[in-house]
TrEMBL record:
Protein name: phosphoenolpyruvate--protein phosphotransferase
Cofactors (names): Mg(2+)
UniProt keyword list: Coiled coil, Cytoplasm, Kinase, Magnesium, Metal-binding, Phosphotransferase system, Pyruvate, Sugar transport, Transferase, Transport
GO biological-process terms attached to the record: phosphoenolpyruvate-dependent sugar phosphotransferase system
Phylogenetic placement of the source organism: Bacteria, Pseudomonadati, Pseudomonadota, Alphaproteobacteria, Hyphomicrobiales
């Protein structure tokens, strides 16, 4: 842009000087609107700020009646200013009074002005106010004038975001940025968390807004863009499972945006107008987000999140910041807010500081949710807009029981939830008192309540929860959080630590279960698959890469020297796979025996039933293994053709349906017939109501997250299993298969005073 007396660069330079001067907020705003009016040869410049009550209040003006400041106000959607705020789009009119939305405010004295240009004050796509210029003459403002006003609006947005204007609010009035917001999602893990927001991939706060040299900033932008494009191209060139399927589609969208000429042109225009490269990205990102939010095409609206992620990546490139820097300064009551994240990423955070998790995406059986449940983290998913509405440090409440998220809650809401936390603490004390009580029903039927685990940090919960043992130790989590394949020594060390912590209680180690939705970034062996959940994963992968399986088996055998060892094979489809795995185990036993290693006193080999094909091989399977465990998550997914990671259908089908419960009962009966112990270790075991259903169809061993053991045990101790078994048998015998099992169980619980 030109550097003339009326040019945008001169205006930004003057604003930079004003921001540096020791002025109170009102005085600074008054100077800003005066400078804008003078620079744009406008007779009026006014700033309206959006309040928490959805009113736009006049905060500063040059040209209108100064007595109207902090008195004149419009509702969101009312008048030209309200229309701009509601639509988040500029309005450029040569005769404003003829526009159908025009509203006359007599206190302002604006009736003599015809031409009107208003732009929204945006931050991260959120409207914080409206900036307006007006003239008596009828004219349309030029594109460069609109761009200049939008750039100034971005600077004002940062002033609002930093809290500078909060001192100007009247008692009892709050700005929209601090407005309490309640959002509803899906409850993924029970519990209530009170704390402060930590954005998983936080927006970079841009503090250097004005550039000293546009050419230098353009060079920085080009360098960062080149680096960003190279990183995306590099990820797309890989052929491992980490960058296929939905991951690849997202990366393709990133590449499309990163090479979009219009996007780059707007970035360069903002720099030429006087912004730094970082401020240019912030401005263009906010403008783009505001426009995309109002698109009706659902596909284009979904791409908004991709664009946000890409812009944040570019900001981090420009500012040299990594996404994990925030973990070092985490508050002691952190509640992570993220679009989505991997299980390993959650485990990167100091566990003792976490109080909750909020996801814009996710499904109840996705691995991030399973890990959150394992560490007892209240979790709510499918909370649309949570990331854009939150700022780091905002007070937040997560209610994992009813799916509510309260951002910047009012005092009475916060106190109500604090009481809820105290009530839950009293219930937890009750569960602790049950810990040493025999785990049996009211009519004396013993039941093994086992816990699921996957890392050494889970082990203290074995004693705390009163679990009968570890029914599922997910060995792949050690691989998922490592930067490279763990060596045999590291694996042996972990497995020995687990067995020592168990102190004689049974531990079932599931052999490495990778592939599908569990990806190892460093594993280069996989090829692109259209349906990775149905592809090369778990036992299929390890039988094809026997070196990987042999290494793990050797570590398990050495760690379990002098103890019983229980190994379980995941994703078994044919009984022949069990025989192949047993051959590898026998070979490792002979190898260690030859070199004089202490071997396990007893070795039990089991299989997971999660592939429907095994339902027609139950007789052969029960005779080929020492035990079986039902992986209800995957079994339900495959039986109902329901992708558990697909949020559109994840809640569509109920695992407590008559058909699926009949399948589970079939497995239990086969185990009883052949004397083969059967456990269920999916998420179905972790809620009292579904655990009740499992007990009613014959399960006597179930494994769950440690936090679920107390509530399930409290239910179990009050349960007359003989009565429930009759009720369940009658329900499953109903040939209509339309019985509402959940309603049936709730009715049974109410009649017998059982808390669910």
């Amino acid at each position: 842009m030109r550097d003339s007396a009326g040019g945008p660069r001169v205006l930004l330079r003057r604003l930079r000087e004003l921001m540096a001067e020791a002025l109170d907020p009102q005085e600074r705003l008054d100077h800003i609107v005066r400078e804008i009016a003078q620079n744009m040869v406008a007779e009026v410049c006014s700033l309206y700020v959006l309040r928490a009550d959805s009113m736009l209040e006049l905060y500063a003006t040059e040209g209108l009646n100064p007595g109207a400041v902090h008195l004149a106000q419009l509702r969101l959607g009312q008048g030209l200013v309200g229309t701009i705020a509601a639509s988040a789009r500029p309005l450029n009119l040569s005769d404003a009074q003829k526009h159908p939305a025009f509203t006359y405010l007599p206190e302002t004295g604006e009736e003599v002005y015809h031409s009107f240009l208003g732009v929204p004050v945006l931050r991260a796509g959120r409207t914080l106010g409206v900036l307006v210029v007006q003239n008596r003459t009828m004219r349309h403002y030029r594109e460069d004038e609109i761009e200049a006003l939008e750039t100034v609006a971005m600077v004002i947005a940062e002033m609002i975001a930093t809290g500078d204007l909060a001192r100007l609010t009247r008692p009892g009035i709050e700005l929209d940025l601090s407005r309490p917001v309640s959002m509803t999602g899906l409850p993924f893990n029970e519990g209530v968390g009170l704390g402060h927001v930590v954005l998983h991939e936080p927006r970079i706060v841009v503090t250097a807004l004005f550039n000293e040299d546009s050419d230098d900033e353009l060079d920085r932008l080009e360098t960062a863009l080149d680096s960003l494009r190279l990183s995306i191209d590099d990820m797309l060139s890989r052929r491992d499972v980490a960058f296929e399927g939905e991951h690849r589609a997202v990366l393709e969208a990133y590449r499309m945006f990163a090479n979009d000429r219009g996007w780059v042109r707007r970035l360069k225009e903002a720099i030429n107008n006087g912004l730094t490269a970082e401020a240019a990205v912030e401005k263009v990102q906010s403008d783009m987000r505001a426009r995309m939010m109002h698109m009706t095409d659902p596909y284009l609206r979904e791409r908004m999140s991709d664009f946000d992620d890409l812009a944040n990546r570019l900001l981090r490139q420009l500012m040299g910041r990594g996404p994990d820097a925030l973990a070092e300064i985490l508050p002691k009551d952190a509640i992570i807010v993220a679009r989505s994240m991997g299980a390993a990423e959650l485990l990167d955070y100091p566990r003792q500081k976490l109080r909750g998790l909020v996801l814009e995406e996710g499904a109840p059986t996705s691995h991030i949710v399973i890990v959150a449940r394992a560490i007892g983290l209240p979790t709510v998913g499918q909370v649309k807009g949570a990331v854009s509405m939150s700022e780091n440090g905002d007070a937040i409440i997560v209610d994992g029981e009813d799916g509510q998220v309260h951002l910047r809650p009012q005092g009475d809401v916060e106190e109500a939830y604090a009481e809820k936390v105290r009530f839950r603490a009293r219930r937890q004390k009750l569960y602790q008192e049950l810990r040493d009580r025999p785990t049996e029903t009211r009519d004396g039927v013993p039941v093994d309540l086992m816990m699921n685990a996957g890392l050494a940090v889970d082990l203290p919960q074995l004693a705390q929860s009163g679990a009968a043992g570890i029914g599922l130790f997910r060995t792949e989590l050690q691989f998922m959080v490592a930067a490279a394949f763990p060596r045999v020594e590291a694996q042996e060390r972990l497995y020995r630590e687990v067995l020592e912590a168990a102190d004689g209680k049974p531990v079932t180690f599931r052999t490495i279960d990778i592939g599908g939705d569990k990806v190892l970034p460093y594993f280069k062996g996989a090829q692109h698959e259209e349906n990775p959940a149905l592809g090369w994963r778990a036992i299929r992968l390890t039988l094809d890469r026997p070196g990987l399986l042999r290494t793990q088996i050797r570590a398990l055998l050495k760690a379990a020297g002098g103890r019983e060892l229980r190994m379980m094979l995941p994703m078994v489809t044919e009984v022949s796979e069990v025989r192949q795995a047993r051959d590898i185990i026998d070979r490792e036993v002979r190898h260690l025996s030859r070199f004089g290693y202490l071997l396990p006193t007893r070795l039990k080999l089991g299989a997971m039933i999660e592939v429907p094909a095994l339902l027609w091989q139950l007789e052969e399977l029960m005779q080929a293994v020492d035990f079986v465990s039902v992986g209800s998550n995957d079994l339900f997914q495959f039986v109902t053709a329901t992708d558990r990671g697909n949020t559109r259908i994840a809640e569509r089908f109920d695992p407590l349906s008559v058909p699926f419960l009949r399948i589970l009962r079939q497995i239990v009966r086969a185990g009883d017939q052949y004397g083969t112990p059967v456990t269920l270790c999916g998420e179905l075991a972790g809620r009292p109501i579904s655990a009740m259903a499992l007990l009613g169809i014959g399960f006597r061993s179930i494994s769950m997250a440690p936090a679920a053991i107390g509530p399930v045990k409290a239910m179990l101790c009050e349960l007359l299993l003989s009565d429930l078994s009759v009720v369940m048998e009658e329900a499953l015998a109903n040939h209509s298969a339309s019985t509402d099992i959940r309603a049936l169980l709730r009715d049974f619980a109410n009649k017998h005073s059982i808390a669910l």
